[in-house]
Specification:
By secondary structure, this protein is of the alpha+beta class. The protein has five helices and ten strands. The N and C termini lie far apart (48 Å).
């Protein structure tokens, strides 16, 4: 049965319109048992995002970032800092151009090519965000700027260049706790450029 026949009487309210928007949806949903169920859900709309795992196959290194994340600090992350893949909000039509700009802003590297590997919903029960995930090669010659993020966006980003083995060890020890980063690393280890190297560890 098409979804259009399972949803009716959709009502949308704005609960918050600050940095991003928080909506409340009230609707009737036709259950699998044939009964109509009146439901209410809140959805946080922060737009879509992009992220990339940067790897150097010659040096066998991974380039990650570290920055303070307040929501993690208030929910069990004692330092507040999180190790992540380079990422950003999708604020233009082309995700590929957006992630290349984010790479330059955050890391200082001008990467000529990225490879899209998957699209994922980050927290589908409450957040509308869809992430476009990429892999990209980098070399020392691609370093063009300082990186570190944009001051006018209050970014203060530290670069972490780890060997493949160091990265694997960090994953095993639970030092990488960011979901998009773990997805990218696991994809690279299973199907991508890190498969052979991680298999030797």
């Amino acid at each position: 049965m098409p979804l259009s026949q399972r949803l009716r009487n959709i009502q949308k309210e704005i609960l918050s319109d600050a940095w991003y928007k928080l909506y409340r949806y009230t609707f009737d949903y036709l259950r699998s048992d044939g009964l109509w169920d009146r439901q209410q859900r809140e959805a946080y709309d922060r737009g879509n995002g992009v992220a990339v795992l940067l790897y150097n196959p010659q040096a066998e290194t991974i380039l990650l970032t570290s920055q303070f994340r307040m929501p993690t600090y208030i929910n069990g992350n004692a330092t507040g800092f999180l190790t992540e893949a380079c990422a950003g909000v999708l604020d233009q039509a082309d995700p590929e151009l957006c992630i290349q700009r984010e790479i330059l802003e955050e890391t200082g590297y001008r990467v000529p090519k990225v490879e899209r590997v998957m699209e994922v919903y980050t927290s589908p029960g409450a957040v509308t965000e869809r992430m476009f995930l990429y892999l990209a090669r980098y070399t020392s010659e691609m370093k063009k700027e300082d990186g570190g993020g944009l001051m006018d966006e209050s970014e203060d980003i530290e670069l972490l260049e780890w060997s493949y083995k160091e990265t694997l060890k960090a994953m095993e020890n639970g030092l990488i706790r960011d979901a998009k980063t773990l997805l990218l690393l696991q994809y690279a280890a299973l199907y991508g450029p890190l498969k052979a190297a991680f298999g030797k560890s």
